Amino acid sequence: xxxxxxxxxxxxxxxxxxxxxxxxxxxxxxxxxxxxxxxxxxxxxxxxxxxxxxxxxxxxxxxxxxxxxxxxxxxxxxxxxxxxxxxxxxxxxxxxxxxxxxxxxxxxxxxxxxxxxxxxxxxxxxxxxxxxxxx
Amino acid sequence: xxxxxxxxxxxxxxxxxxxxxxxxxxxxxxxxxxxxxxxxxxxxxxxxxxxxxxxxxxxxxxxxxxxxxxxxxxxxxxxxxxxxxxxxxxxxxxxxxxxxxxxxxxxxxxxxxxxxxxxxxxxxxxxxxxxxxxxxxx
Lengths: 135, 138
Description:
- The complex is a heterodimer of chains A (135) and B (138).
- In chain A, 51% of the residues lie in helices and 13% in strands.
- With 135 residues, chain A is of the alpha/beta class.
- Chain A has one domain (8-130): Rossmann fold (3-Layer(aba) Sandwich).
- Chain A has a four-stranded parallel sheet with strand order 2-1-3-4, sandwiched between helices.
- In chain A, α1 (19-34) packs across α7 (111-134) and α6 packs across α7 (111-134).
- Chain B has one domain (8-132): 3-Layer(aba) Sandwich (Rossmann fold).
- Chain B is of the alpha/beta class and 138 residues long.
- Chain B contains six helices and four strands; from the N terminus they run βαβααβαβαα.
- In chain B, α1 (19-35) crosses α6 (112-133).
- Classes of the chains: A alpha/beta (135), B alpha/beta (138).
- At the A-B interface, α1, α2 and α5 of A face α1, α2 and α4 of B.
């Protein structure tokens, strides 16, 4: 008997210009590494730079977007160019919920940023569980 | 001699799945924070994907150097899709090919060896930044 394991697509904002973008990338990467059988990702700019396969990403996978600021690039780009996300997460809202300060540097995160990375990754993982339950 | 610019945009790959995407970002950060602060500037690549007016203006009014992490060339294509022209396009793997003793590792961020390679790459790109700012064809 074939058992189909549904994968959840995670789209990270990446935000190179803001510390929350780095936090977003690190947290998304952590979930992808810890849940390799259940998660998959795509580089956000591939919705424009890629081909048909990339543009149908959100049709092929229930998708969680993770944004680092209120411009919501990941959520907007996914909905405009691929398909409506199942869930949209916001780093500022997650940090506020957990009482954590926003990161202040663009790179070389260390122990000071560890709590934020873990909190965001936990929220993404929770959203993955919820989406898998709904499928 | 062309028009002089106060800013040169350095736009790296957004990927979190390949080491050369991480190397591209580290190189861009090194340029912007240490090697040419105030002259080299960044914007978020996804802002171009959603056609954010400020980000689009930045890449259409200033010279742009792209550093891509894979042959899909997202950074270069995103600038072009936003109506900008890329002055110099690089793929990060070339920096490793030129410095084979520094093999970078890491996906979201590069390791210590990758940081050293990014320092060298940023110093090499600084010449292009200076030439583009001066209005010279790099």
